[in-house]
Amino acid sequence: MADIRDYERLARESGAYRDIELDILVESLQLWSKSPGAPNTLLELRDGKILAGFALLCRAMNTDFTFDVLALCVARSYHGTEAGRSLIAMVEEEALRASDSVIVRVETSSRKESAIQQGLLAQEGYALIGHIADFYEAGDDYFIYAKHLAGERAGSGEGETGEANGGEGEPQGQDGAAPGGTTDARSEG
User: Fold this and answer.
1) 38, 131, 156, 182: most buried by Cβ count inside 10 Å?
2) Would you call the peptide bond into 39 cis, given omega within 30 degrees of 0 as the criterion?
3) Are the C-beta atoms of 94 and 43 separated by less than 8 Å?
């Protein structure tokens, strides 16, 4: 069983999660640690040995080609860097491993989105498909975003290759330089 304490600590310190949300995230991480890749896949972004961020995703129930992002967390010390963009690229690459044409959905809140980078999902081509103002509390809205990805083998047109950032912006460390040893803990399932 994998140790999830680093992920839990990062999520807690990010300030993005309320206690009940953190409890749910920990349950999802425990499920992953018992059986990586079935149903959850954990991707991590590291700057050397430092955990800069992580994403947790799973195939949406009753679908063949839709993936839900259960968590997208960036360490506070990496806010304002390319860490969020890098995590999104990793999520998209992982989803495209399953099929040449997939949909990625992200349910989030104002609080969580600002802890990654405000407006990043829209900048990365995610369509806002739902919004409920003050859903969690005053000023903390609910959002759901989605993006259709078509891989190269799907014969997609230019600009829809599944390359999330088109080669722009490498992950950056705390000092603004590209992190050494950016890795993922992808779990095959």
Assistant:
1) 182
2) yes
3) yes
The count of C-alpha atoms lying within 13 angstroms of the C-alpha of 59, restricted to the half-sphere facing its C-beta, is 15
5-154: what fold? Answer: Aminopeptidase (3.40.630)
Q: Are strands 101-109 and 66-74 parallel, antiparallel or unpaired?
A: parallel
- 35 close to 6: Cβ distance less than 8 angstroms: no
Cα–Cα distance, 112 to 101 (Å, whole number): 27
DSSP E strand stretches across 48-126: 50-59, 66-74, 101-109
pLDDT tens figures, 94-118: 999 989 999 999 999 999 998 998 8
**Would you list the domain boundaries of the chain?**
5-154
Alpha-carbon separation of residue 111 from 69, 70, 118, 128, 172 (angstroms): 16, 15, 9, 16, 22
What pTM was computed for the model?
0.79
